[in-house]
Structures are given as structure tokens and as C-alpha cells.
Amino acid sequence: MVSMRRSLVAVVALVVVTPLALAACGGDEDKPTPAAWVGTSPSVAPSGGVPESGVAESGQTGGTSAVSLTVTPATGKKNVPVSAEIGFKVSGGKVTTVALKDASGKAVAGALRDDGSAWVPSKPLKTSKKYDATVTAVDSAGVTKTASTSFTTMGKPGKRTGTGLYLFDDRTYGVAMPVVVEFSPGIKKKDRAAVQKRMFVKTSPEQPGAWSWTASGTQAYYRAPNYWKTGTELSVRIAVGGHPTGGGRYGDQDRGATAKIGRSLVMKVDNKTKKMTVVQDGKTLRTLPVSLGKKSTPSSSGTMVIMEKKAATVFDTTAELGPDEGYRTEIEYAQRITWSGQYVHSAPWSVGSQGRRNVSHGCVNVSPSNARWLFDKTLIGDPITVRGTEDKLDAGNGWTAWDMSWKEFIKGSALPVPAELAAQEGA
Predict the structure, then answer these.
(1) 89, 93, 266, 269: least CB-packed within 10 angstroms?
(2) Residues 163, 148 within the same domain
(3) Is-annotated flag, keyword Cell wall biogenesis/degradation (predicted)?
């Protein structure tokens, strides 16, 4: 197997993914490109938090209000990040409206966090600009109280953290598609909680989930305890544009997408029988003979996810292994399942071995006819589980969010997971 290599792919608005040469059963030079932010949307918050405290001017109407209300950022504060939220502490009533305007009086769109702790603008504020915010709360008698503040945002940051989102608008994905966010450089542990608070996911129908970070902090996955339900709509906003990410860096931009989950299709590969079972919506469609990695280059055992599909490509390991050990081969119906270069693909040269013995460099070999049939059936995000090989899948070698129990997965969250959600039985 070729050693795993990772590099952040530059992301720009309205990305178009173009085919590139692949490293066969090893290497990740052309991993799929993350999607870019495609618009603005109200924030959907899995958790809340009040920004730094500060008391603002206040007023009331209709009599003496029982409400106590403070608002942040503090009045007159300068160099505020453009990711600023309008935070508030309220007692004796509840907040009913939040209004934020720029220096020209133009209203800024936004939404309350689910826990009501703050109001989040629907996109980053502009740099070096003054903003005015007014928060209105009401007590049980209907008497209102307002608090106002004004602040000025910071200039353009000198250092940025690159970000990527592996989700595209209006696409349909498999039931195991995690929300995958990438950071370059990675986010250190002490900074992850603040960043995670700005990573919003909404599902319809509702299926609460959690975030989990890789050890390096270069990726974070979001999933529910079990595979998504067919027909689920995922609405994602990674609202880190201009947000502090640690080390004097700030997120490069907001990213987001709305996508759907399709039918359930699950692939299970058993090394003992050398067969793949393909199950759609609970019904076995076909059992395919396979050849897995030979002992010197074993396939990884674990639950993986299809990350990329190419009907025709080239596997080329000569640059990495040299002309004597490397090879360059044209491949059809290649479906990537790890960053280190394991694929499910057509292998006409190993048909005689499929179902009998392992001869590949780590990939899952199937016949040309079976490869095309499978390629036409699958979606990005469909799960494939391989069992019984000599090698175990490494965490982070692909979208490995499902290669751990739910209890293990939530240990990677930088924020506390609600007890009811943590207690659920997951895959």
C-alpha cells in the first residue's frame, strides 16, 4: 500500500470538479474537492453560548418592566470579529426581537440560536464597519424593555484558516453521508469548542446528531446515531468566515449547502467468502465475487463510505513508488473508499481469482459487468463494510465517521453532547 498523503484542495465559489489521474490503490493526490458556500441562510444552532459580557443602554415601554437585559458586544467595542453574534442575558422575561443595522441603516438578516442565547447574522459582517443592535424583551405582563449597543468590526485578518465542505447543493447522497468539514491548518483542541459552536446542521425530518473531530483537527464529521432516513434533507452552514480559529487566524469564509438523502444501499464484503452482498432498502439485490488485497497489501477492514466515483480513470503509482515498483493502469468504474487509495473497481485481469483468492493492491476487485452494475446503483455516501482482512481501517483514512460506535464517536466532540442524545443506541 502507498502511504497516505493529505493536502487541502483550494476551494472557490461554485466549484467545478474536473477528472485527474489517480494513484491506484494508494495515494490521495486528487481527493474529491469540498463544496463552497453557495448562499446565505438563517443560522441553525445545535448549541449556544453568550459572547463576552457587557452592559448596554436600555429603555422600556408600557410601565415598569420586570425584565433585566444586557447585550453584547459591549457599547463602543472595536476590532470585533465579523462573525460577531448579538448576545444577551435576560431574566424576568424573554427576548422577542433583535435588530442589527449597518452604518447606512440597512437591516442585517439573522436568526436566534435554538437555545435563545444569542442572535446570529445570516452571513459575516463587513470588515471595518460600525453596527448598531437593538434587543427587545417582554415580561409576563406584556411590558417591554430594550437594550442597544454599537460596535465596530475589525479589518481584514492577516492570517486565515482554509476551510472546505464536502457537500454540494441539490445533490442526493447515500444514507451514511457524514457532514465533512476540513480545516487547513487543523484546529487545535483548545480552539475547537468555539469553532464547533459556529457549525450548524439542520435535518428534516429531525434526526439529532453530533460533531466529532479527527485527532489532527483537520476534519470534523457530523452524523446521527444511525444512518440517515431516506428522504432526509440536510441543511448545513459552517459559519466560520472571519471567526477566530486560534493562533491569530480567522476562518476564510462561510460555507454551506442543502442536500438530500436517497434510498438505503449498503454493501458488505466478507473476506472469508470473498463475496460482496448488496442490500437496498432491506432487500438483497446481488452477491458479487470479489478479490481483495493480497497479504503484502491487504484491504482495510472497517466501515467506509464511497467518497468519489469515476467511470474511467488512470491509476498511477510510478511517481510514488518509482518505475520499477509502480504501475500505470487504465481503470473503469472506480469508487474511492479511503484517502490511502483503496477503491471498488472493475478488474478484468483478476476475474479468475474473484471469489477464490486475494490478488489486489488493497482494492476491492469485481468483474467488469458487476463493476458497471454497482457503479450505476451507488451514490456518494453509500456505506461499504469490509470484514476479516489482515488490516484495520485507520481513523481519518477516508470518511470514517461510521467506523466507530456512537459512544466512541461522540467522544470526539469539543462540546458536551446532551445526555439524551449521548444515551441513544447507535450503529
Answers:
(1) 89
(2) no
(3) yes
Tell me the average pLDDT of the chain.
87
Set of cell numbers at residue 107:
437591516
* 48 inside domain: no
Tell me: do 132 and 183 sit in the same domain: no
DSSP sequence for 300-352: EEEEEE--EEEEEEEEE-HHHHHHHH--EEEEEEEEE--TTS-EEEE-GGGTT
Assigned domain for 118 exists? yes
The reply to whether 345 belongs to the active site is yes
Whole-angstrom distance, CA of residue 83 vs CA of residue 100: 13
Number of domains observed in the structure of the chain = 3
* Averaged pLDDT, 277-300: 97
Contact assessment for residue 234 and residue 165, using Cβ atoms and an 8 Å cutoff: no
Contact between 133 and 86 under an 8 Å Cβ cutoff? The reply is yes
Domain with 88, as residue range(s), is: 57-153
- Mean pLDDT, rounded, for 158-185: 98
- In which region does residue 355 sit, left (phi positive, over 0), alpha (psi from -120 to 50) or beta (all else)? left
Residue 179 CA from chain centroid, whole number: 3
Question: What digits encode the pLDDT tens for the residues 100-124?
Answer: 999 999 999 999 999 889 999 999 9
List the beta bridge partners of residue 136.
Answer: 97, 146
pTM for this predicted structure: 0.86
CATH of the domain at 220: 2.60.40.3710
Asked whether residue 300 falls in the same domain as residue 388, the answer is: yes
Looking at 134, 153, 172, the residue that finishes a domain is 153
If we measure between CA atoms, which residue out of 360, 342, 341 comes closest to residue 350?
Answer: 360
121 preceded by a cis bond (ω within 30 of 0): no
pLDDT digits (tens, 9 = 90+) for 238-284: 999 999 999 999 999 999 999 999 999 999 999 999 999 999 999 99
Q: What is the pLDDT of residue 223?
A: 98
- Mark whether 147 and 185 lie in a shared domain: no
**Cα–Cα distance measured from residue 335 to residue 385, given in angstroms and rounded to the nearest whole number:** 14
Q: Which of 25, 243, 361, 363 is the catalytic position?
A: 363
Domain co-membership, 252 together with 327 = no
Residue tagged active-site, from 25, 243, 345, 361: 345
Question: 368 — phi, psi (to 5°)?
Answer: -55, -45
What was the pLDDT predicted at 65? 75
- Taking only the tens place, the pLDDT of each residue in 380-420 is 999 999 999 999 999 999 999 999 999 999 999 999 999 99
